[in-house]
Amino acid sequence: MDSFWCKEGHLNKDQAQVLKTLAKGARYILEIGFCTGRSACSIIEGAGPENIQQFVSLDINYDYHREGRNMLKKFIKEFPFFQACEINSKDVDSVWYSKVFNGNGADFIFIDGGHTYEECKNDLEHAALLLNRNGVIIVDDYMSGPPNGCSLPGVTKACDEFFKTYNTKFERKTWNKDGKGFCILKKVHSLLGRAPIKFDSTEKEFYDSVYY
Ligand SMILES: C[S@@+](CC[C@H](N)C(=O)[O-])C[C@H]1O[C@@H](n2cnc3c(N)ncnc32)[C@H](O)[C@@H]1O
What we know:
Rossmann fold, 7-stranded mixed β-sheet
């Protein structure tokens, strides 16, 4: 997987190691915030490409970084399970996510898109519904700060509020090294208490919203 680790990017090697460990065996994966694909690379390596059924990458702009779209093309060419949606995560809802995953839910979700309180809260709420039982959500930049991270209080606030609301449904762990932080949320109980709905996968309007 070394050739998929872009020479530039936001995620560092310590974080990559944590993602690799936590993603082990995941089959259905969502990532919000691709940038240069470092987190995608780490998650795919940890999960094992042979196990993955679907990896959905969502980003508002694959040109956010000058290497972004080139890296994206490499992932799409190499991994048949890789799908990219160039979309603002605030413009999609839980029905959209459920349809993208054809009712299978997700086992592993990495949130690293918009870093305001509202954006992170919105992504967490949708992730919580999409996530399968025993699945994991990881939010990047939780309690981050110097020397290697930057302070993003909106992300920390959204995570803390989320866990306060859903502490009977989720277990929480935190990780931090040199100012780079993760909030790790494991879903131990279902939110809805029922299986996800299956959708008609031939709907044209829906497929038009999936970019690649
Ligand atoms: C910090 S970078 C992600 C880093 C990436 N996870 C990695 O490991 O290289 C944040 C990314 O989120 C995207 N983004 C920002 N706001 C977004 C939003 N509202 N919806 C979707 N993507 C968003 C940006 O375009 C950018 O590529």
